[in-house]
Design goal:
Blueprint (H helix, E strand, L loop, with lengths): L3 E6 L5 H10 L4 E6 L11 H16 L5 E4 L2 H14 L5 E2 L5 H6 L5 E6 L1 H5 L1 H10 L3 E5 L3 H6 L6 H11 L7 E6 L8 H7 L4 E3 L2 H14 L10 E6 L3 H14 L1
Helix pairs in contact: 1-10, 1-11, 2-3
């Protein structure tokens, strides 16, 4: 029960999910592994995303984790079903763009889904669109992951890029914005400033709640002692430092 819970992301974005999990499960021990060396995954072809995801998750498996969270929408879409089939003994939680709650929050307007190119083109999102795709505008967040990965989420460059991506829709009635990449919650304030009346949906808490449910279901919860967080990165110490900084920024 006191084994590690492994978190995997293409970079630092999954820190946003980890933060929710630590709040909800303060007695657990977490290992976060970010493949920052190869971020972003979004523009890559499917087989390359799968190969990189497999390598990253193998790092977690080598540590004997008791559960895995794929804290990346792109990696979830490309690889979650494969790793679940190969490791049915492990609780494995993935990400899903929060299109369903955004759909039900509409009141006559549209929903903007901001995500990577891979997330938008893969079958997982296509299934969601078939169910909840009324009045949805999809936007590829080209360049946003790179800004977060370089520690510039709150920079003038990030603000300018968000305006270029989203301002074409400011004259529309936008009721909800879905942050379909775990890097994008670090840009939440700037996005909200552009659309002050829109609800922002990211799915972070839902993922943490799903993790809690599976741990309880499998009798895997840790005891009452304080938990811990360990960070690793394929890109080395600078990326680990950024992970810690982002975690501290979230409070």
């Amino acid at each position: 029960m006191n084994d590690l819970i492994g978190f995997f992301d293409s970079g630092v974005g999954g820190i946003s999910v980890l933060h929710e999990a630590v709040k909800l499960l303060p007695n657990e021990h977490f290992l976060f592994y970010g493949d920052n060396l190869h971020a972003p995954y979004g523009p890559r072809p499917l087989e390359e995303i799968r190969a990189l995801s497999a390598a990253g998750i193998d790092v977690l498996l080598s540590r004997g984790v008791k559960a895995i969270v794929i804290a990346c929408n792109t990696a979830t879409s490309a690889y979650a079903e494969i790793v679940r089939a190969a490791h049915s003994e492990l609780p494995i939680v993935g990400m899903e763009p929060a299109l369903k709650p955004a759909h039900f929050a509409r009141h006559g307007g549209k929903v903007v889904v901001l995500a990577t190119a891979a997330t938008l083109r893969l079958e997982k999102f296509e299934r969601l669109m078939r169910l909840y795709g009324d009045d949805v505008i999809t936007v590829v967040g080209q360049g946003l992951v790179e800004l977060v990965e370089s520690g510039r989420a709150h920079s003038p460059q990030a603000s300018s890029l968000l305006k270029a991506l989203l301002c074409p829709y400011r004259d529309m009635q936008i009721d909800a914005i879905v942050l379909g990449c775990t890097h994008y919650p670090f840009l939440r304030d700037a996005i909200q400033d552009l659309f002050p009346h829109a609800g922002i949906f990211d799915g972070l808490n839902g993922t943490a709640m799903r993790l809690k449910f599976l741990l309880d279901q499998n009798n895997l919860r840790s005891g009452d002692a304080p938990g811990s967080v360990e960070y690793q990165s394929s890109a080395g110490p600078a990326s680990v430092m950024l992970m810690k900084q982002l975690m501290a920024e979230l409070g």
